[in-house]
Amino acid sequence: MSLRRGLLLLVVLLLALLGWQWQRYQRFADTPLAGIGADASLVVARGDSLPAILRTLRAQGVAVGPPLYWQLLARQTGAAGRLQAGEYALPPGTTPRALLSAMRDGKVLRRMFTIVEGWNIRDLRAALAKVPLLRHEAAGMDDAALMAALGHPGQHPEGRFLPETYAWVRGDSDLDLLRRAYAAMDKALAAAWQARAPGLPLRSADEALVLASIVEKETGVADERPRIAGVFVRRLQAGMRLQTDPTVIYGLGERYTGNLRRVDLVTDTPYNTYTREGLPPTPIAMPGKAALQAATHPADGDALYFVAVGDGSGRHVFSRSLDEHNAAVGAYLQRLRAQRQAAAPGTAPR
User: Fold this and answer.
1) Separation between Cα atoms, residue 98 and residue 279, nearest integer Å
2) How far is Cα 212 from Cα 290, in angstroms, rounded to an integer?
3) CA angle (168 as vertex; 164, 170 as ends), nearest 5
């Protein structure tokens, strides 16, 4: 009897120990890891084993716990032998189970980069150069070399990258992002051109892209884009010069100081639509989908001119005749002078 009781007691103790260990294991699996810093992430290199990953976590100050539990949990979750390379987010509250599941499924950390509507190629390249952790392969390339690297030698880069937000992962390069943005613009432009309104004075999708870039730079007010496009389409149809300031500014390049002078309007460049007829030779910015839609579906009407209201709304006054337009310009200048006087130091309130 004493032997049986002894064996029974041993079994009970063993079961109790196993139960205790199981409870500890379960708590380990679903307890947030301690020591995770702000904005922390884990980089898993190709071929890294689980012990190597745990060493990386420890080096980052994370309390990983018993390696045996990690091995058991990896088998339980199906992550053993299936850990994928990449960068993984480590937000506060990350548990071992969640981390192993993410590495098993390849749920790598995705970062975002936004191309802003109206940026030109200089703006885009400068913004890309400031993105940390992105591989900068385009550094040192001029625009011609850049387009060759993207697989489009001889093409001007302006306007060729669709303004949108693009996700990227560690290991991607600026060229990877630009390839995706180029493909997105190519698709959006083709769709807009295919569905264009009849009778447009545009000979190709590329000309629609040029017009869309001008519309993009002329207004940020969504409901004005088709009206602005309508004005330019009617001017093209009538053989009038476009006379749009953003093209002149683009032609000045880095010489533009923020103040467009009268001498700039009469100084001829390939982009000066005051001195040259038709569209400029390339786009002048990156137009968004709304501007592409406006350029290929301009609003009907009879307006041939527009000028800013000047009240800070970004809206414009549209005119059918030069006399109406001159009156609108006069009102704009009068409002501008009043604003400057009100903002001048020492001006008495009225």
Assistant:
1) 56
2) 9
3) 160
- Spell out a b/e string for 148-178, using b for 16 or more CB atoms within 10 Å of the CB, else e: eebeeeebebbbbbbbbebebebebebbbbb
Query: Given the DSSP bridges, would you call strands 111-114 and 86-89 parallel, antiparallel or unpaired?
Result: unpaired
The CA–CA distances, whole Å, from 94 to 36, 38, 84, 111 equal 8, 12, 18, 19
All domains in the chain, ordered by first residue: 28-105 (3.30.1490.480), 111-189 (no CATH), 199-343 (no CATH)
Sequential DSSP letters for 53-107: HHHHHHHTT-B---HHHHHHHHHHHT-TT-PPPEEEE--TT--HHHHHHHHHHT-
Helix (H/G/I), strand (E/B), else coil: 259: coil
Phi, psi at 44, each rounded to 5° = -105, 115
Mean pLDDT, each 10-residue run in order, the chain (350 residues): 64 63 80 90 93 95 92 93 94 94 94 97 97 94 97 97 96 97 98 97 98 95 95 96 96 88 92 96 98 97 90 88 90 82 57
The reply to whether the predicted model has a pTM over 0.90 is no
Tokens 């009038």 correspond to: 240
CA gap 138, 226 in Å, rounded: 36
Q: 3-state class of 227 per DSSP?
A: helix
First and final C-alpha spacing in the chain: 110
